[in-house]
## 1
Amino acid sequence: MKPSERLIVALDVQGPEEALGLVKTLVPAGVSRFKVGLELFTSCGSSVLEGIRRAGGEVFLDLKLHDIPNTVARAAAAATRLGVWMMNLHIQGGSSMMRQALISVREEAKKRRIQPPLLVGVTVLTSMAEKDLMDLGLRKTLKDQVLDLAKLAKSVGLDGIVASPREAKVIRWACGEGFLIVTPGIRPKESTEDDQQRTATPSEAIQAGADYIVVGRPIISNADPAGAAKAILTEISPCDPVK
Ligand code: C5P
């Protein structure tokens, strides 16, 4: 995969002007994939997706769906109609929820004769640490919890998972090649961790087996977003996953 295909920039901003301004700055720098999350989608709805596409970008719609199977399946079909490249749901919603979402995405795409979006499952948020799992009453290690959720997603047939780069290696080992690993929690050397707990640098993430890295604040809050994106693309260009 080319470095530009691996980088997904999180457009965690409030409004369409700011988002599309960033897209127009970043596309010429070699970025082609953008993540639209809760803040942007709640503020401006689906119109921003069309703007991103028109500017030459593909969209990862990061709404982390988690509800009863019928509701999630219908929302997943609606996202498919929006023509997104990738979307996600919480694996903790269970097998039945994931299965119905997958069926619904594929049926909707077939009806519209379009490519179905990649459907990936969120394991454990990268902002959570071991203690947070204890607070939730989970008596597993964080790594085991992530791994069990990744295996569950794979057994249902999802395209891949979202996890921290620190768990990428063990997930690749357990779930094999071809199962997509998307890693947020990316922090280039010398940037702050913010609220992320389980971080790695862009090259560490790719070497650990990540297919895609999601980067927000280190690019969008940088005084020179294009320069920051280019530095990351350069950093990952010689990287090959360590087998
Ligand atoms: O700014 P930063 O690089 O930390 O942004 C990370 C992005 O990835 C945020 O949009 C966040 O919602 C998202 N994300 C995450 N952890 C997950 C799934 C998504 O941080 N497990």
## 2
Amino acid sequence: MSAKTHALRNALTGSTITRFMGAHSALSAKLAEEAGFEAVWASGLEISAARALPDANILSMAECLEAAAEIAAAVGIPVLADCDSGFGGVGNVAHMVRSYESRGLAGVCIEDKQFPKMNSFVAGNQDLAPIGDFAAKITAAKEARTDENFVVVARIEAFISGVGLDEALRRATVYEAAGADALLIHSKIGSPEEVYSFREAYRGELPVIVVPTTYPQVTAEELAEHGFGGVIYANQGLRASITAMRTVLSQIGGDGSTYGVEGSIASLKDIFALQNVDDLLARQQRHDELTATYDALA
Ligand code: SPV
Ligand code: MG
């Protein structure tokens, strides 16, 4: 059992809503932790976008794993990894769970779409996987873990694919029976109406997570009042960095110097703190002291 899997499970089953901040790198995850979020979402969209690639299973599982493991290693809060539709068949899912668990992730989320998946907001194939096939993958994921607290989230894309509430509820019941630890209900409309209708009609026991990308007006408090167990701010950090970099880079180009942006960008001191440079310096100082001690013994 690891402290982080335990922390994620406790957070999701606790009485307050768990706020996940999306990350694409170790550095962005540290900023999420610094800002006080309870957990990190290793976002497939962010990790792909940081490599200027579509969020459509273009990256291999190994590439996604490496990015997620770097994120997990950088923070003390638990990280839930976005694992798309599980990277293939049931063998891929079992290998995925063993790999993500052994690299320090606190849980994985898999969505009930076909491989290769397409980001939920892209017009393109959003067809669902057959219900039994996906539920069997959830069971395979649970059977592959060695830490009983490792979290397996089943993500329902019924609203995204346009098949509606009844299908979402049918899937929720089966995924719960298959052993899912939590559900994620996704929606791409401009209000929380769909996810509220799901939360009200769902009679099961699992915590339900939402991703309010297209209904940003909703607060964490309102979601908690409606009975949700988690909220994922999936991509705002990456979007902020794109806007900030565009603004600063174009100003430098226009000004012909970096003077005008100096006051508005992170200092080198700030970067060194995020890199834990002080730890390195302390280690080097200890090395110098030990070297002198051992040299004296020689
Ligand atoms: C992600 O962040 O990659 C997600 C959420 O899966 S979404 O982009 O809304 O599909
Ligand atoms: Mg994703």
## 3
Amino acid sequence: MDGNGRWARKRALPRHVGHRSGVKSVREIVETAAKRGVKYLTLFAFSSENFKRPRDEVSMLMALFLESLQREVEELHKNNVRLRCVGARDRLNLALTEKISAAEALTADNDGLTLVLAVAYGGRWDIVNSTRRIAERVAAGELDPDDIDETTVESGLELRDLPDPDLLIRTGGEKRISNFLLWNLAYSEMWFTDVLWPDFRQRDFDDALEFFGKRQRRFGSTPEQLEAVKC
Ligand code: IPE
Ligand code: MG
């Protein structure tokens, strides 16, 4: 969800107004995703590296997460949304981690859209954690290094129980991953748009879905092999 700052600057407003405005897009996109039958939506709200931002902006964003959770959780629950947060919780303040845990517990049994919020998240951080778990198991004699495979690495990742993303959408014009789900995005389709996040609405999401619908996903196979499977 990129482009909040530029959205504000274009209007000669402070950056925090852009972040606040971005929350409206979150609401609309979560609703649209649920309506379109999307099962899993992961929003990259705040990266490990975003802690480098000025202290005021970081604390404003943390306050905005807390406020938005407080305001939205009941409604999400009513709409059968299951909420999850991934990222370094030890870098968040207590009020926020408590609210996140409460929201996860409240919505744990919902079976509609799974909404994952990536906060204080980094793809490298995630892979490092998984690696550490593997090393611990090897050191404890529970795992033979020869038995380490992709499933072993996956089993230590934050999103180990979710399918890999089919589609990545990045708003705000940059064409890079910026340390999002590095492992999980291996075969995702990528949709980059210049639309700034606070302007990103249902029609933009639908454009991305339309693009996705036209992709042939080969996962390394040839087009001919895929045709043969269809017959
Ligand atoms: C994305 O918008 C929001 C967060 C990273 C929290 P930015 O704040 O990165 O907006 P730009 O890139 O400055 O426009
Ligand atoms: Mg940005």
## 4
Amino acid sequence: MVSNPQIIEIAIPLYLDRTFHYTVPERLLDQALPGRRAVVPFGRRKLTGYILAIAEESRIDNLKEIIEVLDQEPLWTPAELEFFSWAASYYMHPLGEVLRTALPAGINIRTRKGSSGENAELTGGKAILREKFYLPGPLSETTRRPGARALEILAVIRETGEIQASVIRKRFGSSSPQLKRLVELGLAEVREREIYRDPFKNRTIMRDTPRRLNRHQQSALDTITENLGRHQYSAFLLYGVTGSGKTEVYLQAIAHALENGKNALVLVPEIALTPQLTGRFQARFEGGLAILHSGLSDGERYDEWRRIRRGLARIVIGARSAIFAPLENIGIIIVDEEHEASFKQSDGLRYNARDLALVRGGIERAAVVLGSATPLVTSIHAAHNGRLTLLELPERVENRPMPAVERIAMKGSKETISAALATALTQNIEAGQQAMVFLNRRGFATFLVCASCGQALSCPNCSVTLTYHRQRARSICHYCDYAVPAPGTCPSCGATELTELGAGTEKLEFELRELLPLARTIRMDSDTTSGKGSHERLLASMGDGSADILIGTQMIAKGHDFPGVTLVGVINAEAGLGMPDFRAAERTFQLLSQVIGRAGRGETPGKVLLQAYDTEHYAILSASGHDAAGFYQQELEFRQDAGYPPFTFLAAIGISGNVEQAVTEQAEQSARLLAAIKQKLKVRVEILGPAQSPIYRLRGRFRRQILLKAVTRKDLRRLLLAWRQESRTSSTVRVVVDIDPVDLM
Ligand code: ADP
Ligand code: ZN
């Protein structure tokens, strides 16, 4: 009798909507288990796929055999595979691609088996480092004398219990003969183990202990820990004004989870911008931390991945991709600054880590804490209807007042820095205090305009103007990096007189230096922070008082805690309001509130001067009046009237390509097909467009958009799935679906 061969289901990392069945040859039966990678024949190629499950049967005969299994341990747990499948289905993205996204790049450096096949666990070729460790041996005494230095070394080995060879070398110099002797005599044992590169080895961290919580913090913490104890999914919105001590609540909630044997996952918007936050975690928790920093090399990232997989890290901190970290036994997931748009991935798998945190929390039965001083309008709505439990920190710690905000109307004025702001800055510096000046545009002039023909210098590849950067003597496209020498000549008429319009941070810095020649100014924007560690250096000079004024774009608004800052200036506060995006008011309110919140976090109260042409817009009024409740109420009314989230669900279909005509035709064809399917399925979905995207040309591609709005996710999904089945795309055009889109530009 011939027994049926074992069939397994495999996901392939290609843009295919389905998974595949393969059979397992006899010799691989004990290895071909879910969560491991396998090499499989695919067409005429060999590909690495991911084993999802053992299949009962297959409708297809003549299944092919897998060739090899690459891993000796599973890469993922069943709960993680469930999570990835959920994400693949929700975002309508191939599971194989999702799994590939979830793996660290370093794993693919050179995946191979150890020579004997036995120690071929998660080997990634050169990514792995090994080192010798010494520990006390089975014998405690010997009649033969190992020598005085060897005895000294032995004492240290016994004292530490286990010590790395490199540490012994550092202390005793080269000690190989002594160590060898100790091992021969049975006084010490040697073991070889993998070691992990420590990306933060050059840092010194001061220990830090939990603070006494105020009553709001305590009550928030109590509610979270009570739920932690139940091991059930629970979701919170920790809504605390700037400087209210949210981080302290995170730290103590995590400590509680660890005490209960659970692990913690912490998501932050951009880890390079938050060295302070990671520093506070390192200061509070000894070891056991994995920090997934964007500055990690592939090898380092892979090391961290393996440390987490093996349970050696109990707290994982990282930006959005950390939501895929192989952390088991999760008790709590924190999403700090939950309102930040950077939690959304803008290409490939277009996931939102803030949303996925709730999903993973559900699968892991964990507590999920979304924290912000300026939550998403959507989160406020979810708190109103009970899907998130609201935890409020309405006051700053130690009863520090919120800063006083003065709005300065700039109508009719051509200055970058108003007289009022100039005076305030001068007085602040004279008083020996620090200031921040915010302008959400980099470069010197927003653009150059020809004085004779009136044309603005714009990018030949993108429908945007070029920004003039004076230090670099270039006009640059901020989207595709196209650059021309500047000031230069007008490309239309050849005239040499170009007028500078609009100011950026470079010009602001220039003017502030003229105004306050003695002040030590530094600038933080993507021009000054491209070097490794440059964020940290700039922030450190604010932290230690070696800078007086920090000038910058939205980078300076992010959660920094500088108690010495007593004055904040905001230039062109309404800059974001002109965006053709329904979230423009929300984003402006959030950004302004965050910037305002940088002032007066120490003992001296803070003051903010906010310059705007239109000082009466409700986003500006609410932010400057610390009236968040008023803002959310108005914004929710607007969203309801206009039919936008949280009252509807959105999906965007992006159609782009280099040939304009092909893009237009594809967009129209897609919209017609959607309309026909909508009729047939009788789903309630509004189809808007196809319209030109606000930035119609980007990096040479023409872009159109169809926006789908629905009252239920179910209708939206039914329409999209049916459309995808029937949709035919021409080879010159790319069509992508973005579920819950954040960037509509
Ligand atoms: P947020 O994240 O809400 O803006 P932080 O967590 O950065 O606020 O806290 C602001 C400052 O107050 C930090 O320096 C923090 O160490 C301090 N702090 C937090 N909680 C307390 C407390 N209970 N007592 C005293 N200081 C506190
Ligand atoms: Zn461009």
